[in-house]
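Section handout 9: paired folding examples.
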Amino acid sequence: MISIIITAYKEAQSIKKCIDSFLSQNIKENYEIIVLAPDEETLESAGKYKKVITIKDSGKGKPTALNLAFMAAKGSILILTDGDVYAGKNSVNELLEKLKDKKTGAVSGRAISTNPRNTMLGFWSHLLTDRGAHEERKRLSKENKFLACSGYLYAVRKGVIESIPNNSLSDDAVISHIIYKKGYKIDYAEKAEVYVKYPTNLKDWIKQKRRSIGGYVQISKWFPENKGMRTFSKESSHFFKALSYCKNIKEPFYFIILVIFRIYVWLLTIWDLKITKKEFSKIWQRVESTK
């Protein structure tokens, strides 16, 4: 049996598309769908599906909700995703196929941006998912090296993860590092697609990146022996390679602006975690334009 775990907050409408994207698949294993949310609207919307188990969490953040899910899930494989995304056809079977290898502890799906590429932020989302995360995960998987799962869709073996710190800014990265540290391989299922709406305004983009990059600063402290996918030096080394992704006269300018804002967010992250030492709740802010 597998457990499909969906964490959500104030996503009464998008949760329907998320659930439907799993129910429409011809999943080869018996499965349960668990939706965790702190708000009644989302739980009520998800509860209309007979197949769905709803759990009200404390509203203290996604890591706390995940820890609750780890205890409640009955499946031997956990599929983790969010209530504001939707899975592609056959994505679950693609993840399960990779887990036939008993040495594999987790498998990442592939995030696909639904934003139009002809806007600056849309271009950023496609560049960072296609040329960035996708190409890097393909390479690391082929070379049998550590890769961090995408929090938008991934699978883990139950029992390998019992809990994560409640102040984890990048829960997917923390889970990936714990699994790798226990001696398991992490694989990449590029056909296990998940469709994601990324921020559509600069304020929300900064919020999201400030949180995710902050997670990797935490990782460097919590797992100093593991080399993660994301560091400032690693990002810098790929900047100019990414120029080949540009297709028209506007996109190189969008790329240069992206470089400036990535540097800005890295500086903000250092300020948050190493100088002012902000609390989890101050950094983990809801990004409205992705809903």
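Moving on to protein 2 of 2.
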Amino acid sequence: MKLLLHCCCAPCSVSCIASLRAEKIEPHLFWYNPNIHPYTEYKSRKDCLNEFAKRENLALTSVDEYGLRVFLNEVYSQTDGDSIAHPQRCKKCYLMRLEKTASFAAQEGFSAFSTTLLISPYQDHEEIKRVGEEMAEKYGVEFLYRDFRPLFREGQSSARAANLYMQKYCGCVFSEEERYLAKSEHKIQRT
């Protein structure tokens, strides 16, 4: 199987790749994450994935498009005004990234595509699967579904042991804001 694996970051890739290799599948990594903000965070994640791919002797294709405006336009176009609630913006984010992955996979002759987003217990697993299957049908390339979530903690530990850059939020500007608001609320409750 010739697999294109969309990678959101190196830490989430560790256990996904190990699991695929155990199945005798050698993935070709794919970086396309216009949702990640600010630029310093985007660059840190991209650079870490580049280093990880070299260390693991994996092919990596990067679509290097820092996309703050594109991402915000897409999210706002799918919402009703100020309603940029978590589920709606995440659905659009999954669609943006998996459509680009499926399109590239079809164009470059891959037989299947998947994503490391399937490892996170914090993402909407069923929505990722639904979008992946929709894009598979649209582009005529198989969506390789795997529930990598049981490997999440192990992968995070391995990533820390390998000194990979560990992010503190999913990547979008909204999740970064929510992280800081939660910290502020926690501080207020403690005082």
